[in-house]
Amino acid sequence: MARSREEYSVSIQNRLKHWAHAALRPLARVFIRLGFRPDWLTLTGLVMNLGATAAFANGNLKWGATIMLAAGLCDILDGQVAREGRRETKFGALLDSTTDRYSEIFLYFGIGAYLIRQDEWAASAILFFALAGSLMVSYVRARAEGLGEDCRVGVMQRPARIVVLALGGLYGHGGLIFVLVVLAVTTNYTVIERLTHIRNKLKSTTSPSTPV
């Protein structure tokens, strides 16, 4: 039952990714024709997230959410331009993963600064667990891949986190706090899901010792 649920989750995420890539393909081809390098889009997304961070910190939640969503498009397009423009490199993949982590940290920092200015100390503590869970979701996948295992299971992958966080910002203060609670729970649950998934995979690939 657990495996079928994991497979279903991965299938849904793959379909959503396919639809997003199909919708953005014309724009990606424009960037390719203009000679845009994937790394430029990666760094543009990072700079835009810095702008979103400043907007959140100053209490402009809707602007922060809007800029964050635009930066998310850059995050999708850089990989698409790299693949379709045949410019995929190992360093590009590393740069993309690194800037993704920095962007997420910056965004939470901006939201944290806003919450502290609002004397929302309980919400700031919740934000800490949301950030920790978000980073650990990516960390578990990276460590699993280091062991030679693919690990894309779980509902709260980075695209989902960005969309949920942006929706909270668009709804204002109350919506933002609500989604932080959701993220604090679901990101850490996703970590457990991934650990369980890899544990089961490693156990299933381990050959039982045969009696002598």
Task: Describe, in plain words, how this protein is organized in 3D.
This protein has seven helices and no strands. With 212 residues, the chain is mainly α. It has a single domain, classed as Four Helix Bundle (Hemerythrin (Met), subunit A) (Up-down Bundle), CATH 1.20.120.1760. The two termini are 35 Å apart. The model has no long low-confidence stretch (mean pLDDT 87).
Describe the structure concisely for a colleague.
The protein has seven helices and no strands. By secondary structure, the protein is an all-alpha fold.
Unreliable spans: none
Helix percent reads: over 70%
The 3D shape can be described as globular
Major sheet summary line: none
Would you identify the CATH H-level superfamily? CDP-alcohol phosphotransferase transmembrane (TM) domain
Count of distinct strands: 0
Which structural class best describes the helix and strand composition?
mainly alpha
Number of helical runs? 7
CATH architecture: Up-down Bundle
Write the H/E string, N to C: HHHHHHH
Measured by DSSP, the beta-strand proportion falls in under 5%
**Average residue-wise pLDDT:** 87
Count of structural domains: 1
Q: What is the rounded distance between the termini? A: 35 Å
Q: CATH class, please?
A: Mainly Alpha
What is the CATH topology?
Answer: Four Helix Bundle (Hemerythrin (Met), subunit A)
In angstroms, what is the radius of gyration?
19 Å
